[in-house]
Each structure stands twice: as C-alpha cells, then as structure tokens.
C-alpha cells in the first residue's frame, strides 16, 4: 500500500487529540503522513489567561501533541468563536487543504457538542471540494483530489452511531502522551469545570472498545454522498 | 488470510442470488467457502405450478445457482409463508447454522419488502447465538462462534442506508448466470407481474455502483450489537 | 411521596443487575418496593453445566442479587430461547405482573443485542395492558393500573439514545455487589468469551456518567405511547 | 375514475372509526366500496361486561358504525389479545382479504400504542401478499392484486410522521356519528379511564387539520416497499 | 429549591407566548425569575403597517405579554429576516445572555417551521457557551454558567418528538391572556392568512395534553450534548 | 385545473436538469408555466476554461436546456462557492422569487451532496417566505403566496427517502435532450472525473422507476412545516 496523506481538521487545539489521535498514531505507524489541523488558535479556552498569550501557549501545545503522534501541526489562524460560513473562511480552509493535499480528511460531524465543531465540519466538506477546482484561486495550487471524509466521534460519545471503529489499544500510550501536551486545557477543565480530560478520553475509549470487542477504540462515521467514497473490493469479513 | 466459511441465508430460493451473489462470488474467488441457504422451498412462488412440483423445481434451480457462484446450496425445508418465530423454527435454523459453522452470516435486514424476509433475519440472529450454546440440543454439535452478521440490501434498494458497498463489477457475469438459473421465477415474474428480475438486479446493481464510484455494487449494513463485531485494526483509508 | 411498586423485567438472570440495578437500589433507598423478574431460568447460559443444574444455580444467584439491592426476585419459569409471542407466554407475563401489581415497569427496549431481550420488552408491554383487563383470566386478580414503562440501556450502550439518565454514583457498591452474585455468569463470560462483566458494567456506567455530568449513571428511555405517561407538573430545571 | 374496493383493517371494533373513518366516508361519497374489518371481537374491552356478551354488543356496534359511514363491516373473529403471528392467523387474514378483494388496504402502522395494533399491521401486510398466491389455499379464491397499503395515524397522534393528510372537514358529522355507535367503549373509557373518545378524536382531527391547513384532517403514511406503490403521473402541485 | 433564572429566547415577539408561555407561567408561580426574549423586533410581521411603526407596536405587545406571565421582556433589536450567523450577531446574543445570567435557557429547536427560528436556536446554543468565556468581550461581564437548554415545540407540533411534556392546565388562562396581548399578530394572521392564533395555540395545547394524559400541555426536547445536562438523582416514577 | 407557476431552483446550471427536469417537462405538457433557476453562474465547474468564459457558456447552456423543457431560465448571478446565508443573498433570492411569483417551488433538500446545494435549499425556504412580506423591500413587488416546496432527489439518490415519485417515462427523451445541452459539464465530468452524467441520470431514473413500478421516475420529498402544505381532499388510492 502506498503511503497516503491524512489531514485531521479539528475546531480547536486538543479536539483531534481527544477524538482521534489514536487512529492517527496507527496511520503514522503504518507509514502514512498525517497532519493535524486546528482551525482556531484556541484563544478563548481559558479562564484568566489573556487571549493572545493563550493562543501562543496553545499553538505550542498543539505542535508538541502532533509531534507525539508523529504528525505535523498546522493552524488556520482563526479566533475561537470566529468560524463563520463566509467567503474568507472558505478560502482559508481551501488553501490549507491545498497545502496538505490530503488523500483522506477526518473532521467533526453534524451532531457534535459545539456549533463551532459542526461548522468546521461543514466548511471542511465545502472547502475540500473547492480545493480541487482550479477556478477557485488561493495561494496554493489546486488539489487533484476530492478526498473521502470521515467524521470523528462526538465529545462524550453522545448521539453518535458509528459506522467504523478503530482498535487503538496498542497506541493508547501515544494518545495519552499527545493529550498530555495540552496542559493549559487539562488544568483549566479540571479547575474550572472539574473535568479530567485524560480520564474522559480514557473512559470513552474503553466504552468504544467494549462496543467493538477490543480494549480501546475510536469511533467514526464515513461521509457518504455522491463522489466521496468507493465500494470495497470485497466484504470485510 | 485464512479461508473462512460464509453462510448467506435468504428467505426464498433466488433472494440471495438477487441481493448478494456478486459479493458471494468474490468471496469464493478469494478462497472462502460459501453456502447459500434458502429457508423455504419456494412452493408458493408461482401462478399455476402446484406447490410440490414447484418446490422440486426451485430446489434444483437453487442448486444450480449456487453452483454458478461456486457455493453449496442448502434448504431449511420450510414452506413459503411458513416462517414463524417459534421453538421448532428456531431449532431448524440453529441446526442448519451448526452444520455450516459459519465465520460470518449474511441475511435479510429489518426493512426489506416481505415480512417473511424480516422474520428470516430475526430468527437467523437468534439462532446464530443459540448455535453456540451447548445446552441447546439439535442434531449437529454446537458451533464455537457467534458470528458477525451483515444484512443484504432490500429488493429495489428502498429504505436501506448502506454502511458497506462491495464492488461486484468483475463478477457481474457470474451474478447474471446465477440468477438465470431461477427460470421459474424469471418467467413467472415477467408473465404475472411484468417484472424482469435480471433487469431489476442489473439496475439496482448499477445504481449502487453509481453511489459508490464503481460500475456495479452490492450494498450491506453490518449488524452492530454487543458481541457481534470487532473494531478494524486501522481506518480503511 | 407514597411508596410505589417497581417491577424490573429482564430476559435472563443478571440482565437487570447489569443494566439498571443501580437505579433500583436508589428506588429501594427512597422507600419504594422493587421486584426483579427474570423471564427465563437462564438454563442455556453456560458452556458445560447441564441445563437443569444451571437453572438452579442461577435462580439462587438471582435471589442473592435481588437481596443485595433490597428487592424481591421472581422468575417467570421459561427456558432460555423459550420466549415466543403466543397466548401461553402472554398469560404467564400477565399473571406475574398482576402478582407484582407495579406502579411502574422497567424492561428491555427495541434495540437491545438479543432478540430474546426485544421480545421480552414487547410481551411485557402487551401483558402489562392485559393485566389491567378483567376479561383476561389468570390465577391472580386483575391489576388496577396500566403502568408507565421505562426501557433500560442496551448491553454495551450501543444504538441507544437515552431520554433519562440516573445518577448511581452513591450506590455503585451495591450494584457491584448485586452483579457479583452472578458468579456462574462472571466466570463463564470470562473463561468462554474473555469478557469481564464487572468491568463492562463499570465502564458503561462511567461512560453514561461522563455523558450526564456525574461519576456513574444508568440510561433509560421512556415508552411514549398513548395512555402510558403523564406530563410533568413543571419543567425539571 | 372506476369505483374501487377499500378494506380498512383495525385491530378492535372502534379503531378504524377513531383513526380513519372520515377518510372512509369520503371514499364512500366518491363512489368507492368500503369494508371495515375488526380483527378481534373486542371481548376484553370492558370492565365488567363478560367477554361473550361484550363481543356480541361490539359486533353490533361495529355494524352500526360501518353503516353510518356507508361501509360494510366484517370481523375476523379473533379474541382480544388473541392476535399472534402464526399459520392459522395468517390464513384467517388471507381468507378475509380474499373475500373483500381490496384495491387498497388501510391498517395500523409500526408505531401505534398497542402491540396488537402493530401485529395486525404486520400480519395484514403478509396476508395481503399471500392472498394473491394461488398455492396458499383458503376458502375463498385467490385475489388478483397485491394492493397498496396505507397506515393510519396512531392513537393520540404520537410518534407518527405523516406522509399524507386527508381533509375530513365536510364529513366530520359522519365520523362523529360512526364513533357514537361504539357506546360500550365511549362509556367504559369515560368511566374507567376518564377518557372522552369523541373529544380525543375531535382534538386529534383538529390538530392534524392545523398542521395541514384545513379544519379537520386524518393522517396516514404509505407503506413504501418494492411492488406496493406506483409513481404519480405528475407532481401533485 | 432555590429560585432560578430562566431565559426563553424566541425569534420574534409572540413565538414564546405561543410555544411555551404556559410553562413559563408555572415557573413564575413556583418562584423562579423568567425573562422572555425576542430576537427581532418583528418589523416584517404585518401586511401594511410600516416596519418602524410595527416594531414599536410589537415591542409594546411583547412587554405586555411578558407582564401577563409575570416575566421580564427584552429584545435583541435585530430586524426580521436579519438573523445571520456572524460575529456581530453572536456578540449580541452573548451579551444579552450575560445580562440575564440564566440557569436554564428555552429556545427553538432544529425542526421548527422558519429558518430564522432554527438559526436563533443555533446561535443561542453557541452564544450561551460564549457567555461563559471571559476572553469573549461584550458590555456585560461573563456568566458563570453554561446552562442547560430546552427546545420548545414547533409551530403546529409538526415533526417534533417531545422528551418532556409540561402540564399547563391550571395556567391556560394566563397563556391565553399573554397571547392576547399580541393583537397586531392575532388580527394580521386572521385577516391575511385566515389563521386564528388563539385557537391554534389552544388546539395544539389540547393535543399535547391528550398525548400526555392531562387537559393542556406544552412539549419540549432537552438539548443533550456533552456538558449541557445532568443525570437525575432518581428515576422520575 | 388552472395553470400554475412552478419555480425550480437549483444551485448550479444543470442541477435541475439532472434531478427533476422530467417532472418539469410533464408540468409544462400539462399547461403549467415553469421557470428553471440556477443560483450560481457555474463559473467553477470546469478544469481549464476560465471563470468568466465558463459562466457565459453555462448561461447559454442553461437557456437551451430550459428551452428543451419548455421552460424559462433565470440566473441569480452568484458565483460558484459564493452562496452564503446573509442579507444580500436573501434579498437576491427574494427578488427572484417575487419576479417568478411561483405557486410551487422545487429546490434542493437537506441531505444533498454539496453544502452549496443544501444552503440553496435553506435560503430558498427563507426567501420564499420573505417574498410574501411587504416590509421586505426589493425591486419586485411582494408575492401574494408563501408557496409549498418540494425537495428534489439527491445526486446518486443517496440518503434520500422519497415521499413522492413522478413517472417520467414518456418525457425521458425531453430530459435527455435538456441534459445534453450542458455540453461543458458532460465533457468535463467525463474527462476529469470519468463520470457519464447522462448515464448517471438514466440509471438513477431507472432505479427510482423500479422502486415505484414504472420505467423511469424522479423522486421528491415535500417540505412539511406549518403553513406550507394542505391536506388532500381524498386519499390518493
């Protein structure tokens, strides 16, 4: 199998780490090239650290987390609560996708817990199509592919009926390590909302594992519309 | 990959051929052992041929169709409109499953067009569990597996949201051949209901192909309950 | 609030313990009278213990588990794989319900992992209506109520969108104790299927807890059809 | 338009009157021949009238109600809580359908409030297919049609997403009259359960009317599986 | 129980009154503080009254309606058809929520009949999260809560499967009074569209009452995503 | 039946031709006046033709295709990937609808394969309401109707559960002709993506025909919210 380029687009720094970094680690181990994108700089995700300082901290954390997975990190440079479906945003997404030239994209689905997550998923879908169209002009050249898309699990696994489960048992340490890089979030969520993100991730992973007969798993649905997926060559028995 | 035993359970002779024989042919080509089961003997499926004679014809057609695929054919010996959820029927299904000892089962799902199809699916689910339980006594010894189940497409592809598509382009001739063995049905459906089963099969196959980016495809959903499926080892990118 | 009678009807001994015994323990603590029913005697739930002996073991385990919760245990006396929708079974359910005279019933819902669970839920719904009709004659006198019904979570929490979560954090020890009484199942599931039922229960409970903002929770849906539920007197803010 | 034969199959005497007798009255007025069937004799539908006496009362009431609509009444002769999916019941339904030879059938759908309603719908679907098959032998000769089916609204309109609404404003008096014939039910429901069936019917009819822009309406879904419906000749604008 | 702050956000003046003012009246009676918000000034909701004059009339009507309930009224000051998902609108919503500091929010859900209703619901969800984040700067200080949200019924009760019903029988007079304050709408809807809003409200309320076993009810669903709801302490039997 | 005005609004030139031009041709034949609208000028729909030149080609193709159906063609003048839910776009849609003054609208539904299709559907819904409101000022005078809306099939027929099928067998030649006018698309899709749009259209049409008992059909759902549809006068048997 030829190495592929995988682009995981999460709304905020840490979303990808919580929801699908185990799968990304497995893809890296299998020889694929993985890029982790965070659409916003995460500048609202804290109680008292000012936005600008926070953004810097979180960009650094995102870079370290991606490194733990063996992936590249990129940011789209939007502000938290700054994702809106308009021409500029579409072009930002489109150019970032063109730069990464993914063979497959992973992003948020339509039932996640934040409206911003949902919008990131919608704009990613649109931009990944635009990226393949020469007449849409951005800094980077157009992509020669309109790639398949997988939607990652929702936070807490609520209202999500997976079509795919991935066994992440043997990369759980990498996932734990990647998430541990987001210290600003781990501390804030604990102090402000009494939420232990590591334990949440661990428990949801175990729950998805129980459902699919392994120790730990991550769950996905595939985006199934015309032109975005291909029949298997055989039934995966 | 080790060769596996695949059991496809259709309600009537010809259901499996219409709905998933392309996939079965691919599994045979890949070295797996496939058994095609028809629960009833099809003795009501004609306008004027008497039941007993019709049953004989259809058993013969089923055998020839299975042979075209490279599969074995078995019948559970029930009458058309004779499938009910009771102790005897459960035991018949259980024993037949124990004889085939499948690693995976394919059967009808909950939205197909005949109540008898739906019941075959339900009883198959129950019996495939019973087959693995030593305290349920039937002629054949208990099975050491409670296998995963896939539900095949509905007739006409109505009200069915696939989770899996299989590319059957290169085995369409085998599928056409297998279906052609059911001459009693092809003629009856044409004369009585003005339905060309070959063309129906061809059109639905093409339609599923369009949806999944290939020439011809068959569609399935996986039965996802506790204990019946396992996480993939990696995301199928 | 007046003490109420709660009847939890699980298909097999241990289903209620796994899926809702925390909630039952809370109801007992709140002064309600709880009865735990197992429809079958569980005589197929083991690898090598013969059916009759197994049934005795499991009745005993069921009694001990109910005692741990502070509930009564009753069995409907059917065999495993012996639940079918017929006149006799309806009357057995009806009479058992009349004996317990519940103000509310908890049972399996339509998406659980065993067809037998689903059928227990369906027949319970029918029988709980029949129990209130004098012209249906059984040993016990008719019930003066057609009670509301809650469906408990599915095994593994798959394909279940809860409408109600109950915080069971402070009764988890009771739930663990109740489940521990089903030694025949804990050992069999571990040895035969490598499943640790206690850990499964613990993990699903934690996962439902994460979803609903507490340490451990159990999930339910309410059966919402005409005549079976009543508006709240105020929005539960 | 040629006159057609319409068969409405309700589980119990009064179900059809409550749920779709306005539509039936309109069909009668348009020149169609309508038959109202009640599967059971309603012998459990009362608090203290003995079953046999009650069945006689209800058969009489059913006849009078059908007459008010301008329809025929037939009973399948089963007991309340006596509807099970087995060979005998299928044949009873099949023979009754063959006698009525309907061009269209109306019955209960899969989300109604009584399991017996749901089963009546399921067996009707199966039997209406069997009725067209010569090799299924019953007293009446086979039917030359496998008719389209509409499912009527649920009691209270709960969990029912209509695909069709019918304006019954100008036949509401007929509907009120038809329902008024079921005095045994009107009184029992009022005295035992404090339910005014006439007002319930009136309110649900008004609610369905509000939804569809008329004074009073009844709601339906069409049973959409292969072979059971036909494309419109033009979009109903 | 401590008094709580409840904020009901409707798209236009009169939406809240039609869809949930009975529940609000009950909350007021129970000692809670209720604020009724209308996002737009309603300046398009008439046939011939000019926008500016109409907005003044409707603000007055909104104030009187809220007073009838015992609630405060606030307007977000947008124009009809002026609700779009952008930065300014988010900040307007956020600041209004911060001013009201609600413990619980009621707003429109995703299946209501106007796109503007749906967008108000989406932006409310986003803004209620933003309101709790110090790094989002608006005139009012940040809120210390990311409150639970309930979605009110749709107009006409179409395509809405409630999870909660509230008995409003004893406050129907207050609801009638509150709605009666919207004279501009009652007259316009009657003259222009032949719709009697009072009767519509009355009929839907009665229909929801029939479904839930009371005289009049209002229906809701709870917004169930991570972090927005909490398990009950006991099953509401 | 009086002639009606039908407005079909597709996102791009060719969408309407692929998805519902058979139905439109039938409406034209029945004497109705049909307008085909394309929201964008299609300037991104090619591999190497520059945007401006492409837009001119596609406007011409759209005009010819509409002519083949017997319809008028109009463009809203937006760019591809230029459809966003904002004030200006709403007004453009509103004014176009006012100009066409439709009795019924056909547009894209919420599950189609491009986000731009979905948004066109959403804005059409909003604008068709705004068009009837005098206080929304655009170039054309307000419309006296808030028309019913039908959603056309998705591309490939994926994730679409039709409520209406229209038999287009006798106008298939017109549909083929109309689509053939979009030569820029037929060639581009073939050369760039190896997709034969004519064959795709033909196959989906045949598949919808099989489902609905005719040779070729098109599928629709009706937009069912308050105020947008009316009960039938009789059940369409």
Features:
homohexamer, 237 residues, alpha/beta, 7 helices, 17% strand, globular
Topology:
Six copies of one chain form a homohexamer.
Chain A: E1 5-10, H1 15-29, E2 33-40, H2 51-69, E3 72-78, H3 87-100, E4 104-108, H4 115-130, E5 149-152, E6 164-167, H5 172-180, H6 183-193, H7 197-212, E7 217-222
Parallel strand pairs in A: 1-2, 1-4, 2-3, 4-5
Antiparallel strand pairs in A: 5-7, 6-7
Helix pairs in contact in A: 1-5, 2-5, 3-4
In short:
Helix content of chain A is 42%, strand content 17%. Chain A is an alpha/beta fold and 237 residues long.
Can you offer a commentary on this structure?
The structure is a homohexamer of 237-residue chains. Chain A is an alpha/beta fold. Chain A has 7 helices and 7 strands; from the N terminus they run E-H-E-H-E-H-E-H-E-E-H-H-H-E. Chain A has helices at residues 15-29, 51-69, 87-100, 115-130, 172-180, 183-193, 197-212; strands at 5-10, 33-40, 72-78, 104-108, 149-152, 164-167, 217-222. In chain A, strands 3-2-1-4-5-7-6 form a 7-stranded mixed sheet, with helices on both faces. The longest helix of chain A is centred in the first third of the chain and has 19 residues, at 51-69. The A-B interface holds A 4, 6, 23, 26-27, 30, 32, 103-104, 106, 148, 150, 162-167, 208-214, 217, 220, 224, 226-227, 229-237 and B 4, 6, 23, 26-27, 30, 32, 103-104, 106, 148, 150, 162-167, 208-214, 217, 220, 224, 226-227, 229-237.
């Amino acid at each position: 199998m030829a190495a592929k380029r995988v682009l995981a687009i999460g709304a905020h720094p840490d979303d990808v780490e919580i929801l699908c970094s185990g799968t990304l680690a497995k893809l890296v181990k299998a020889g694929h090239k993985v890029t982790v994108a965070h659409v916003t700089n995460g500048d609202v995700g804290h109680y008292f650290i000012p936005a600008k300082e926070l953004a810097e901290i979180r960009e650094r954390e995102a870079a370290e987390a991606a490194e733990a997975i063996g992936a590249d990190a990129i940011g789209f440079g939007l502000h938290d609560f700054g994702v809106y479906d308009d021409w500029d945003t579409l072009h930002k997404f489109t150019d970032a996708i063109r730069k990464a030239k993914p063979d497959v994209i992973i992003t948020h689905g339509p039932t996640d817990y934040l409206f911003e997550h949902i919008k990131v998923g919608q704009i990613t879908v649109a931009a990944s199509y635009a990226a393949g169209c020469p007449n849409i002009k951005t800094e980077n050249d157009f992509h020669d592919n309109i790639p398949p898309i997988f939607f990652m699990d929702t936070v807490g696994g609520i209202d999500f009926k997976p079509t795919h489960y991935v066994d992440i048992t043997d990369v759980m340490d990498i996932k734990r390590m990647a998430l541990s890089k987001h210290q600003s979030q781990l501390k804030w969520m604990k102090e402000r909302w009494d939420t232990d993100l590591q334990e949440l991730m661990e428990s949801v992973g175990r729950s998805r594992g129980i459902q699919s007969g392994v120790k730990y798993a991550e769950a996905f649905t595939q985006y199934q519309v015309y032109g975005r997926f291909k029949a298997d060559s055989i039934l995966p028995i």
